[in-house]
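Researcher: Go.
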Amino acid sequence: IKKKIISITVDNASSNDVLVRKLKENMEKSGINLYHGGKFFHVRCCAHILNIMVQDGLSAIKDEIISIREAVKYIKVSPSRLHGFAAAARELDLSTSKKLVLDVPTRWNSTYFMLERALLYKDAFARYSMEDPGLVWLLGPEDWEKIAVICDFLQVFYSVSTLFSGSSYATANLYFLEIWRVQAILQEKVESEGGFMKAMAVKMKEKFDKYWKSCNLIMIIASILDPRVKLTLSEFVFSRIYQSREEREEQMQMVKQSLQDVYQSYIQRNEVDVNISTASTNSSSIQSRENRDSPQCGINLFFNLLGKAENVAFQVTKSEIDTYLEDRLIKHDNNGDAFSFNILQWWKDKESKYRMLSQMARDLLSIPITSIALERAFSTGGRIVNDSRSSLVPKTVEALVCLGNWVKNDGDPMHEVVSQ
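Model: Structure:
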């Protein structure tokens, strides 16, 4: 297994930096040739970095968040208060099908769910406070407007985080575009006139630049291996990031060179030079015929060889990477689901055409950009048998197992599951 490791995806912690460095050193000492010299060995968990960024941003509205958290906690702790709050909501013709959500402060997405749900019941909080003087954590109209703006802003980060955390599709090819999407909205808010959103975006932009100012090259290469975009995505993103033509061309040249370097490493590793395979075959054919000829003198030999050479098509075949880039893009149905395209299956089907490139795609597209799916797979928290679970009758256990499996595979966003 050690010889097959391409990268390791870990949370963004200093202890993990030391771990990765030591692991890399030990592997090199053991004589293991790391993938592309180990340049792409360390992959930082994107979801963890997003969490750090948003937590920093949310500190700009910590007072409002604390007020909503305490209000929700106050109502949810008592069934009678929940009943009274629901009655107040119905008096305002508000649907009570969605429940209040209490967040986990260390998880920004749960805070986002809490704010989003509280926003639906903003008038109900005020109405219920008239009946229960104990509810003292109230926000004014300006505060609720601020929460509404922040929820719209955080929606982008939630969708990116959800996309990155998927486990049923490749995520490496999605990294480049989504990171640019985050950068674009942060830059837009930083350049805004002012106010709390600018202060929030500035904090988040500092963290973004710390971790993602220089985009991971291997992820850009992974995006090129998406036959729906190829180089067009890099060209599009660079045109939005860099103002000068020289900078854009310099970045594109660096990406193209890195793509060729990685591809050539596969050629060298497999000891196959596909670029000159046809020429080598033709040359061998000429040489074998030359050995059978018996020219009378040197000049006859020369003319004999010259004539044979002219009759042979010495055409060097294009490399797989050049052929792939020149082929037309796979058309995407704008009305369809972007995830209906199985990129790994596409490369598997094209293996006979792109023998080396399909190996490269298989390796790079399998790189997880978050550690969430891995933590979920290896977590034993949900499999611990406590006294309560061990006393359940078999039919109840079976029902719970089925229900848990259905929830995992339903595909609904987490906040919809929370609302049940």
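Model: DSSP finds 21 helices and two strands in the chain.
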